[in-house]
Amino acid sequence: MTGCKPVLQQNMDEFHERHLPHFQPLGGLFFVTFNLYGCIPKEIYQQWEHEFQVEKEKIMLFSKSKNEDLERLNKIAFAKKDKFLDTYSGGKHFLKSETLAKIVADALHFWDGKRFELFAYCIMSNHVHVVLRLFNDTEISTPPYLQEIMHSIKRFSARECNKLLGETGKFWQDESYDRLIRNDEELHKILVYVLNNPVKAGLCQQMKDWKWSYIKDVYNHIM
Prior knowledge:
The chain is of the alpha+beta class. The chain has helices at 42-62, 66-87, 98-110, 146-165, 184-200; strands at residues 29-35, 116-123, 127-134, 177-180, 213-215.
């Protein structure tokens, strides 16, 4: 990959996520989704934010199984947002540009084998799905947190894409969705979900037809 390499940020205060109660252990396997800033109308985003906080407050006050109900709420919120991103023709779709999509792909591959193991990704016109496993302290001396990795990827790709666009403002939405993958069955379902995204959105007939998808060789049978 050309250009300056992504820089891992050490100040963890910068990675506080406003929406979700994240559990991000070192060495974890994660499903992450992040989207372009401005690809969702502000009024819709604020409405979702309000609805999420109302439901979260109810759970925190009244639920007898808070963790399970929060996980269910997170899944519902993610599904609503992802469906919108797949179908909304307005907003920003910068990643339709092959040049910009390649910058994002290169940023995702940069730390593969150095800080994490990249399992899969799918780059859509306004959002990105990625599955990766962080290296632990038996594999490298200073294993990263997920927030550090995502900050590095987003910071580098935002800078390079903005250069080409002639822009200086935000490129990515600050918040992202992440989920710790707990077993092989869940991993398989998520890999299929990621690779099937452009098929579901009506952009291609088969998973293998989408140019901006990647799957680790050992999982090629999924394609």
